[in-house]
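Need tokens for this chain, all 502 residues.
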Amino acid sequence: MGLVKGVALSTRQRQRPLGLALCCLYILQLLLLLLSSVSGIGVNWGTQATHPLPPSTVVSMLRDNGFQKVKLFDADSATLNAFANSGIQIMVGIPNDMLYTLANSEQAAENWVAKNVSSHISSGGVDIRYVAVGNEPFLSAYNGSFLGITLPALQNIQSALTKAGLDTRVKVTVPLNADVYESPTNLPSDGNFRSDIQDLMLSIVKFLSDNGAPFTVNIYPFISLYTNPNFPLGFAFFNNRSSSSLNDGGKIYDNVFDANHDTLVWALQKNGYGNLSIVIGEIGWPTDGDKNANLNYAQQFNQGFMNNVNAGKGTPMRPAPVDAYLFSLVDEDAKSIQPGNFERHWGLFYLDGQPKYALSLGTTNSNGLVPARGVSYLAQKWCIMSPSASLDDPQVAPSVSYACASADCTSLGYGTSCGDLSAQGNISYAFNSYYQQNNQLESACRFPNNLSVVTSNDPSTGTCKFRIMIQSQTVTSGVEGGRGFSMSSFVTFAVAFLSAFL
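Here are the structure tokens for all 502 residues:
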């Protein structure tokens, strides 16, 4: 935006004598440039996967699907290099575990900007527009660990960008969870920032306003449904035709996203920042791992959201289209499941870059999502429970527990895509997940007492897919792909699974 202002000033100085018509032409060009700088739908790309797609493949997939913006959770050099001259605008991320260092050292902030921003912009042709400092750092799960260091980290990164001459081009923000504001009555007009962090939030809001940066917030209607069994289902979706709605002083809210968004608008307005721009850092719906996380609901939610965006529809308090990043591009099978088993299933695409469901983004001539190209797979074979093995074998329980703790069994359980499997089917799924994540090594299908065997017959059934991994480097980034929780053991889930199915 600052660069646009510079262009406008220089042309106005040079062309003033050419008359009103030419002046209007330049104003029109300026407006078009301003609009182009914020237009288009974005998407989050997290890399917490055991077999991630190559960055070049992902960049091609983003372009094929018409995504103009992408939000990252770190500043990995190989990833950023893949975006060189791609025409895609980037929000790079700084993980929470770096906030302390950046908050306490201006030099560390300058070094970070030089390595992860300046170098890629100056010589790499990477269009970095934002730096996201931290990820939902004020979640209650962190017990206040980041309360005193987030703002200083923001300030030091801002100072480093200014020193590097990039402050008009690259803006600093902090993606926050929607729990930083609240309404005691659930009416948006009663919204304000959480009382325990009110002063801190106002300091951050002032910082964002002073530096022309947006307030970035992650809003998840699915979580409302997940945490409250009495939450009205229809109110979680757009184009709600149920009786659930809110009347707030004549403004009608028929979905929770609009109500949540405008609660933030009211909080900003009450504190003197009613014009501060808002970016939706994450919004989406998972497809597995919970009874309400399925393909139908995800398609309904994301298509409803995109229909509103493409129709130019905003919220009652801000009628203009929202600026948003869908969450997320691909599934991440190595993410923490501390918030819930659904955490590994937010992708519009499966791990291999194949679309999960029909979704029209309105960005291409295609009526659906375009799959990743040139993906190579491991061999067509699976690891299953041996037909000769017994469910009563004492090695079954520890073997399944080990497989699930080491791999991904989040598609098992009540209401999930593999929730209808037999006991043998559940065991086979666990074995195969471990086998695939370990690149189909023979030793990965050698469970004790000959419990397992390799087969060339696909054991998939109904909605339950026994997936084959792609050929990829099995290196997992240490950065959470959104919803910032640390990794936790899967043993608890495995024990519960065994109790339910054996």
